[in-house]
Design brief:
Layout (H helix, E strand, L loop, with lengths): L1 E3 L4 E3 L9 E6 L5 H9 L17 E7 L2 E7 L9 H16 L2 E7 L6 H13 L3 E6 L5 H4 L13 E2 L8 H14 L17 E6 L6 H9 L17 E7 L2 E7 L13 H15 L2 E7 L6 H12 L3 E7 L8 H14 L8 E3 L10 H13 L5 H14 L12 E8 L4 E6 L7 H15 L7 E6 L2
Parallel strand pairs: 3-5, 3-6, 6-7, 7-8, 9-11, 9-12, 12-13, 13-14, 16-17
Antiparallel strand pairs: 1-2, 4-5, 10-11, 15-16
């Protein structure tokens, strides 16, 4: 069977079997991230008047017309000489190479620049379909003054104002028309969007601890920009990968500093997105630099993960610098126990993003922790267990009052959540509560996951 489009004849065998990709490109500060957020209807990409805010590729699955589309926001193409700019350009060029349709954004309020023409040349050489967009066109008269816009070689531009949500529907319609001309079909015929069943793994840590290097080592490509400049990663970078027929979404986040150290503006927005990524993750991987050890910033970062009730694993990166032998490993584990004993339930893995040592082991660990987080203990068994340990070691009371457990039940998972009804909650000292949690872990595991235990008074 053949399907006729307005531009060309496409046979079923020609139709791609994946979701189409649309990349938004342009020089810095033309409004690419604002357009991206308008398309996906939420503020995923960071918007700022500061040129060069977006650095890594940021993607989101959305619907345009009747098709599921992977939309990609790229960093501003500014052909300077700085090393970081070269990395941003590389990321954008990868986005162009992987795209099926390009949305090329210029600013209607500005004269065309050398960068605009250089980008146009790159896009012509890519031989990809290009939709030219003149953003910041709040006044229709602006387009009349853009007499040299045709020199870019892409015909008429779609005039929009992303910040005022003007012209976005027209732009979507034109992108959809280009995609159908490329042979992509509607969501009802192929690639119906399914519920994301991947395990979400989030890399967190203080700035410049090596998260992006580790992220790139995992996926086997330079998806996140790596630099010695702290705070290089600003947006949340997600990548869906498969290992042993299982799906994982890897999330690289901006470095998190203590509130008093976070600068207002772009860094503040980056940290907010990192906190949101933690909330949406299943398992958190805290990266620690072997050379620098555990810092106060590391403790603040892990506190965020614990408060969110997530699974936690400690990754000690740069372990290739560790002296050979088990003694060095044991010494560092003792050091971790001293610095952060409250994380005794979290597995520790020694890795090296540089050599790839033990990097792939995080997937096995993530599966184990995910299973621990959904573990349930039958109510009868749970009550017998708690009464048994309390008979061996009773909480401190007085001659006239003895703390008692009346009833215990598990009320939730992810994380495991237990409610203990007692005769008086304040009679259970925090040290005894910790003892009960340690006994619970010793018996049932719950490796790598936070446990919630609520003590409630008898009503």
């Amino acid at each position: 069977m053949e399907t006729q489009t307005s531009d060309q004849l496409v046979t079923d065998s020609d139709v791609p079997s994946r979701n189409p990709r649309v990349a938004i490109v342009g020089r810095p500060n033309v409004g690419k991230s604002t357009i991206f957020n308008r398309f996906v209807r939420r503020r995923k990409a960071i918007e700022s008047h500061v040129a060069g805010t977006t650095r890594d590729r940021v993607s989101e699955l959305m619907i345009i017309g009747d098709m599921h589309v992977e939309l990609v926001d790229t960093g501003g193409l500014n052909f300077g000489e700085e090393d970081l700019e070269e990395d941003v350009i590389m990321q954008a060029k990868v986005g162009i190479a992987e795209a099926d349709v390009i949305v090329f954004v210029i600013a209607a309020i500005d004269e065309l620049t050398v960068n605009d023409f250089t980008i146009a040349q790159i896009l012509r050489e890519s031989e990809k379909p290009v939709v030219l967009v003149a953003n910041k066109c709040d006044n229709p008269d602006l387009m009349r003054h853009s007499y040299n816009i045709y020199e870019l070689g892409f015909g008429d531009a779609v005039a929009i104002s992303a910040i005022h949500n003007q012209g976005i529907d027209e732009l979507k319609a034109k992108v959809g028309k280009f995609l159908k001309a490329e042979g992509f079909k509607s969501k009802d015929r192929i690639n119906r969007k399914k519920k994301d069943d991947s395990l979400r793994l989030c890399l967190i840590g203080r700035p410049n601890v090596g998260k992006s290097s580790f992220f790139n080592s995992l996926i086997g490509e330079k998806r996140s920009i790596v630099s010695e400049i702290p705070g290089t990663t600003r947006d949340q970078v997600d990548t869906l990968i498969e290992r042993n027929e299982k799906k994982y979404t890897l999330i690289d986040t901006a470095g998190i500093r203590r509130k008093g150290k976070v600068e207002r503006g772009i860094e503040s927005l980056s940290v907010m997105r990192s906190l949101r990524a933690i909330e949406n993750a299943d398992v958190i991987f805290l990266l620690i630099d072997y050379e620098e050890g555990v810092t106060n910033q590391d403790m603040h970062v892990v506190e965020v993960a614990l408060n969110a009730g997530k699974g936690v694993t400690i990754i000690v990166n740069k372990s290739d610098l560790m002296p050979k032998g088990d003694d060095a490993r044991k010494t560092f584990l003792d050091y971790l126990q001293h610095k952060c004993g409250f994380l005794g339930f979290a597995p520790v893995i020694f890795t090296s993003a540089l050599t790839g040592k033990n990097v792939e082991k995080i997937f096995e660990l993530a599966d184990q922790i995910a299973a621990e987080r959904i573990k349930r203990i039958p109510t009868g068994e749970l009550n017998s267990f708690f009464r048994s340990i309390m008979s061996k070691r009773s909480p401190h009371g007085t001659k006239s009052f003895k703390p008692k457990l009346l009833y215990a039940t598990q009320v939730d998972v992810e994380p495991p959540h237990f409610v203990l009804f007692v005769n008086r909650a304040d009679a259970f000292h925090f040290s005894y509560k910790r003892f009960m949690e340690n006994q619970l872990r010793e018996k049932y595991g719950f490796v790598g996951t936070v446990i919630k235990m609520d003590f409630r008074d008898r009503q």
